[in-house]
Amino acid sequence: METEIQSSPLGQNVDIKTLFTSLRVTLDHHYDRKERIVKQSRDITGLSKKLIFLAHRSNQKSLKSILEEAETKKKEILELFQKVSCELEGINYYKYHKSISPAIQEFIEAISFLEYLEHNRLISMNDVELNFRDKSGNQYLQVTVEDYVLGIADLTGELMRYAINSVGKGDHDRALQVCKFLRSLKSDYDLLKVSGYSLLGRKLDGIKTNLAKVEDACYALTIRGSEYPKEFYQHIVSEHARNYGDNMDVDE
Amino acid sequence: MSVDLAIFKQIEASMEEESMRKDEIYSCVRDYEKTCRYIMAVLNRVHSASSEEVPEIAKEALGRFNEVKQHLANLSKIVPHQQFYKYYDHWCRTLQKSLFIAAFAIYLSSEKLISSEQVENLCGVKLNLNNDLQDFHITVEDFLHSFVTLTDELSRLAVNSVTAGDYNRPLKISKFVKELYTGFQLLNLKNDSLRKRFDAIKYHIKKIEEVVYDVSLRKLSGSTNDGSTDDTIMK
C-alpha cells in the first residue's frame, strides 16, 4: 500500500490549481443540471395545480367537457416531463429525485383526482407509470413508491374539498360516496409501516383530518336531511345563500 | 366500491424490502465508522509527536486503509445498480471522514494534497470526476468536504507542533492551507453545506496565522535553514 502511494507520480506533484479547476467544471455541471430540473419541476407543479382547479370546476360544468380540457392540459404537462427526463437518466434519477419529486407528486394528485371523478376509483401505481411512456412505449420516467403514496395522500385533501363542495351543491349522494372512498383509503394507509417515512407520517395526519371533515359534513346532512325531503332542503339552503348574497350587494 | 387492497400490498412489500436494505447499510456503516475511529486514533498521536516520528505514524495509518477498502466494497455490493444516490446519505458522512483521514495521512507523509489517484487507490472506489459513473463512487463534494476538515485539523496541528518543539511546521501548514483556500476560491459554490463549510476555512487560516505570528515574532523558526529542512522532509 505504502509503496503504491510513493510510486504514484502524480502523488508527488499535485497541482492544487489544476485539481480545483477540474473540480469546478464537475461542480458547475451538477449545479446547472439541478437548476434546470428545479425550474422544470416548478413549471410542472404549477400546471398540475391548474389541472386540479379545473377538476374542481366539475361542480359547475359538465364532466365530459372538463375531462376533454384536462386531457390537453395533461398532454402539456407530460411534454414537460419528457423534456426533463433526459436530465434524470440512470444514476441521476435518484441524485436529483428530491428536485423532481414535488412535480411528480402534484401530477399524481391531479390525475388521481380526475380518475376518481371519471371512474370512482383509485388510480393504480401501474396506471400512473403508464403516463410516462413515449410513443414507442419506452418508460422515460419512473415513479417511486414514495411519490405514489405521497401523491395519493394529497388526493385526500382534494377529495375533502370536493365532498364539501358537493354538500354545498346539495349533491348528498356524491358526498357520501367520497366519504366511503376516503374511509377505505385511510384504512389502507393504516396498514403501511410508517416509521422512517417522516413526511408520510405528517401526511397521514392530514388524511385523518380530511376524512373527519367529510364525515362531519355527512353526519350533518344525514341528520338535517332527514327533517325535510331532499329537494326542499336544497331549496332552503340555496334560498338562504341567495339572500346572503343580496345582503352583500346591499352592503356594498 | 372499495380501494384495491392489492395495490397497497405491493407497496407494503416494496417498503419492507427497502427498510431491510437500509438496515444492512446501517450495520455496514457502523463497522466502517469503527475503522475510521481506529485509524484516527493512530493519527491523533502526531499532535504530541516529534517531527521525526510523524512519517512513521502516517505510514501506519495508511497501512490500515485496506479495511476501509473492504467496508466500501461491502457497501457497494448492497446498493442496487443506479440507485447509489437513493442511499448515499447513509454513508456520506463516514466516507467523508475516511477521505479526510486519508488526506491528513498523505499530507503528513508528503506535505502535499492527496491526489484523486491516491484516493482511488486507498479506497478502491472511483472518484466521480466527470459526472459519468453509474455505480458506487466517491463524489466530488465528498472529496471537497474532506479538504475542509483537513484545514481544521491542520490548524490544530499548527498549534500542537509548536508545543512539541517543531517551529517550522506551522509555516509549512500556513502555506499549504492558503494554497488550498485559493483552490476553493476557484469554485462557483452554491448556497449549500459545502459553501458553509468553505466559509469556515478562513477561521482555520486565522488560527494558523496567529501561530505563525507568534513563532516568527520570537524568531523561533529557523528561517535560514528553512530550505534544507524542507528537503529532508520531502525525501
UniProtKB/TrEMBL annotation, chain A:
GO CC annotation terms, alphabetical: cytoplasm; nucleus
Keywords: Coiled coil, Cytoplasm, Nucleus
Coiled coil: 60-87
Cell location: Cytoplasm; Nucleus
Pfam families linked: Translin (PF01997)
Molecular functions (GO terms): sequence-specific DNA binding
Main location: cytoplasm
Domain of life: Eukaryota
Annotated family: Belongs to the translin family.
Protein name per UniProt: Translin
Organism of derivation: Rhizophagus irregularis (strain DAOM 197198w)
Higher taxonomy: Eukaryota, Fungi, Fungi incertae sedis, Mucoromycota, Glomeromycotina
TrEMBL record, chain B:
Keywords tagged on the record: Cytoplasm, DNA-binding, Endonuclease, Hydrolase, Nuclease, Nucleus, RNA-binding
Main location: cytoplasm
Key word RNA-binding present: yes
Alphabetical list of Pfam families matching this protein: Translin
Any single biological process term in GO: RNA metabolic process
Subcellular location: Cytoplasm; Nucleus
InterPro entries: Translin, Translin_C, Translin_fam, Translin_N, Translin_sf
A molecular function (GO) term: endonuclease activity
Keyword 4Fe-4S: no
Top-level taxon of the source organism: Eukaryota
GO CC term, one of those recorded: cytoplasm
Stored CDD domains: Translin
Similarity annotation: Belongs to the translin family.
Subunit structure: Ring-shaped heterooctamer of six TSN and two TSNAX subunits, DNA/RNA binding occurs inside the ring.
Function field: DNA-binding protein that specifically recognizes consensus sequences at the breakpoint junctions in chromosomal translocations, mostly involving immunoglobulin (Ig)/T-cell receptor gene segments. Seems to recognize single-stranded DNA ends generated by staggered breaks occurring at recombination hot spots. Exhibits both single-stranded and double-stranded endoribonuclease activity. May act as an activator of RNA-induced silencing complex (RISC) by facilitating endonucleolytic cleavage of the siRNA passenger strand.
Protein name: Translin
UniProt source species: Rhizophagus irregularis (strain DAOM 197198w)
Taxonomic lineage from the root: Eukaryota, Fungi, Fungi incertae sedis, Mucoromycota, Glomeromycotina
